[in-house]
Please model this.
Amino acid sequence: MVDLRNLTLPEMTEFVKSLGEPAFRAKQVFGWIYKGITDFRGMKNLPEVFRLKLSEVSYIGRLEALDEQVSKSDGTRKFLFGLSDGNAVESVFMKYKYGNSICLSSQAGCRMGCRFCASTRAGLVRNLTAGEIISQLLEAEALAGEKINHIVVMGTGEPFDNYENLARFTRIATDSAGRGMSMRNITVSTCGIVPAIERFGEDFPQVNLAVSLHGATDEVRGSMMPVNERWPVAELIAACRSYTEKTRRRITFEYTLVNGVNDSDRDAEKLCRLLRGMLCHVNLIPLNRVDGTGFDTVSRKRAAEFKEILEKSGIPATVRRELGADIDGACGQLRLNNIKKSKANN
Model:
């Protein structure tokens, strides 16, 4: 059985032709799927015989909502979606002045080992398919009852560790025959896999890139991010500079502020020297505490002071707006809690 949410339009065309149908039927099926139709009987402009044939050889993949938390303060909604094999992933629906945004997961778990992050605590289970990634968007829209016009692939997992499915998802989400999302409304975040940054710039130059930096030196960054051993700061920044020069697109550097680790004035000054002259923006994120990591957060006041040092040196910076503070806000926490509950019940 073929999951139709996992097919790009060209693949859908070949699939439809293999069933003996004319190629134009593919665009009709594709369009219905990304209008939210999940039952072939709802595809009214398809012949009944073709709908029956589709139901015999294919399906429209769905995710089950296992849990949902809604913030009383800002309307942020955090979903825990169950996969067909019993695994689960998180997605977060957020409201902004410019529209609704969703943070999607790309893997069930993560193997990058960032020491302050809940997503990696249980390790990597498997990659998500493109259909499972885009299903998070479609299911969240159905549950929230609102359209989503911005995507960040910044949830559980390292997107570039699942590059082929990420690329397929991006092509599906941006196809004008289906969901029609603008590439400029999609942001993909990486912890710093250098070869994939270079490839991404070639494949998707219009999609926004965010890089998790979190430290301006190998000593500081390496104390939190094992990936720094493979691609140290100098190599990562060289790849980022090359990316901006080739694409003419600004990179966002995610910088999680950890009390006593990377939040001093001296850390800010080193970050200024590292990024000087680059087309970039720094997104400062006061750490979301995760039990058992040993890391603590900083005050909003300290975050503002750090931001001021960057801006005085000509580095554009913002302090991330705190969303979902009254729910399991840190990436991976809801999934981790679900894993703990499952183990306790077994």
User: Anything to note?
Assistant: The mean pLDDT is 93. DSSP finds twelve helices and 14 strands in the chain. The radius of gyration is 21 Å. Residues 130-144 form the longest helix (15 residues).
